[in-house]
């Protein structure tokens, strides 16, 4: 990849990061223990991201999450860009 292409990718990535509303599911009460139902936390992070007028990210840190009932993810996103960030496997 040429240095110019790398530079433009860096600029695009920096621009998106600067204007992104990050919604970490753990900030909404999700537990990464694999035992606690984190459905409400995931739904709350989804609702916050959808309500954003700027690009939004739903961040899911490393861990095991129990999602028992998350069937209400039917909101339409206002954000022009909605990203999911999965941090890895545990």
Keywords:
RHGA/B-epi-like_pectate_lyase; alpha/beta; Rhamnogalacturonase A/B/Epimerase-like pectate lyase domain-containing protein; three-stranded parallel beta sheet; 24% strand; Pectin_lyas_fold; two-stranded parallel sheet; Pectin_lyase_fold/virulence; 90 residues
- Domain tally: 1
Low-pLDDT segments: none
| Multimer state | single chain
Shape: flat
- Terminal CA distance reads 32 Å
Taken in chain order, the helices and strands follow as: HEEHEEE
Per DSSP, what share of the residues sits in E-state strands of 2 or more residues? 15-25%
Could you tell me the mean pLDDT?
76
Q: How big is the Rg?
A: 15 Å
What does this structure look like?
Helices cover 32% and strands 24% of the residues. With 90 residues, the protein is of the alpha/beta class. The protein has one domain (21-86). It comes from Solanum verrucosum. Residues 1-17 form the signal peptide.
Q: What's the layout of helices and strands?
A:
Elements: H1 3-18, E1 21-24, E2 33-37, H2 39-51, E3 56-60, E4 64-66, E5 82-86
Parallel strand pairs: 1-3, 2-4, 3-5
Pfam family, one: Pect-lyase_RHGA_epim
Organism: Solanum verrucosum
Signal peptide: 1-17
Q: Short description, anyone?
A:
Pfam families: Pect-lyase_RHGA_epim. The protein has 90 residues and is α/β, with parallel strands linked by helices.
């Amino acid at each position: 990849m040429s240095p110019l292409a790398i530079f433009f990718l860096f600029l695009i990535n920096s621009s998106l990061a600067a204007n992104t509303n990050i919604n970490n599911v753990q900030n909404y009460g999700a537990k990464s223990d694999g035992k606690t139902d984190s459905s409400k936390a995931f739904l709350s992070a989804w609702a916050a991201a959808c309500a954003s007028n700027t690009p939004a990210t739903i961040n899911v840190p490393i861990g095991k999450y129990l999602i028992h009932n998350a069937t209400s993810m039917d909101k339409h996103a206002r954000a022009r860009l909605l990203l999911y960030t999965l941090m890895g496997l545990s």
